[in-house]
Amino acid sequence: MERTMKHQATNADAGRAASTGNAALAGTMRGTDAVPRLLLVEDDATTSAFLAAAASALPAQVDTADSVATALELATHGEYALWMFDAQLPDGRGSDLLLRLRARHPHTPALAHTADREASSTAALLAAGFAEVLVKPLPASTVRDALRRLLGDAVADTPERYRPEPGEPGLPALPVWDDEVASRALNGNREHIASLRQLFLDELPQAREVVLTAANSGDVAAVRGQLHKLSASCGFVGAARLAACVEALREHPEDGARLAAFERCAGELLDNAAR
């Protein structure tokens, strides 16, 4: 189901966002009281909530869409000060979305975000016309600094990346929850950490099922696609042990032992939350 959400600059709730619906299409896309309006396109709910909360604190008003189709509908009804596009979406690529919107809006700055750490992927996104590329997961401060640069308020920062060491696939030597990582990603905002973790846990059973079903049917591309999204979400909420299992399985999606470790890590996290 497609989602369209608005985050107000004065009340950035990472876990709950009001639907814009037709009101977003009818209203101005430039924001109010000199606050810029941004278009965020991201299909993973946890990642979307994190990025929207980070951007809202600029301050800014953020409309979110979870598909190319929804983004096109919003962008063709008005103008945004900046676009934030995920590199891979359920119905297309961020670079293709950018190309389609450039005909109507040739000067809107665009920022890409991706969980792909390969330098070649970053280079391809820059070549497609994105001004900057951010690698997820990353701290909220890095997101805001990139937005300030593109919106004209230059502030430099070096993107941080959460890279847990997998260790042995069957038993990653990491905590279930790493509060320090989550606090760094969300600037110590405990309410945002709690709401994002709950959203993450709500979606984890379905994500786990997608991975297991795809793996059992030999669909390596589908396994990697789901793990790609899950990797970023783990970093934002500090799900350290699951993040290690996800990274191990991404490297070798055909490995049965790593798949079993992923299933155990996900189950452990859900069991821990239920207590």
UniProtKB/TrEMBL annotation:
<feature type="domain" description="Response regulatory">
    <location>
        <begin position="37"/>
        <end position="151"/>
    </location>
</feature>
<keyword id="KW-0902">Two-component regulatory system</keyword>
<keyword id="KW-0597">Phosphoprotein</keyword>
<feature type="modified residue" description="4-aspartylphosphate">
    <location>
        <position position="86"/>
    </location>
</feature>
<dbReference type="InterPro" id="IPR036641">
    <property type="entry name" value="HPT_dom_sf"/>
</dbReference>
<dbReference type="InterPro" id="IPR011006">
    <property type="entry name" value="CheY-like_superfamily"/>
</dbReference>
<dbReference type="InterPro" id="IPR050595">
    <property type="entry name" value="Bact_response_regulator"/>
</dbReference>
<dbReference type="InterPro" id="IPR001789">
    <property type="entry name" value="Sig_transdc_resp-reg_receiver"/>
</dbReference>
<feature type="domain" description="HPt">
    <location>
        <begin position="189"/>
        <end position="275"/>
    </location>
</feature>
<keyword id="KW-0418">Kinase</keyword>
<dbReference type="InterPro" id="IPR008207">
    <property type="entry name" value="Sig_transdc_His_kin_Hpt_dom"/>
</dbReference>
<protein>
    <submittedName>
        <fullName>Hybrid sensor histidine kinase/response regulator</fullName>
    </submittedName>
</protein>
<dbReference type="Pfam" id="PF00072">
    <property type="entry name" value="Response_reg"/>
</dbReference>
<keyword id="KW-0808">Transferase</keyword>
<dbReference type="GO" id="GO:0004672">
    <property type="term" value="F:protein kinase activity"/>
</dbReference>
<dbReference type="Pfam" id="PF01627">
    <property type="entry name" value="Hpt"/>
</dbReference>
<dbReference type="GO" id="GO:0000160">
    <property type="term" value="P:phosphorelay signal transduction system"/>
</dbReference>
<feature type="modified residue" description="Phosphohistidine">
    <location>
        <position position="228"/>
    </location>
</feature>
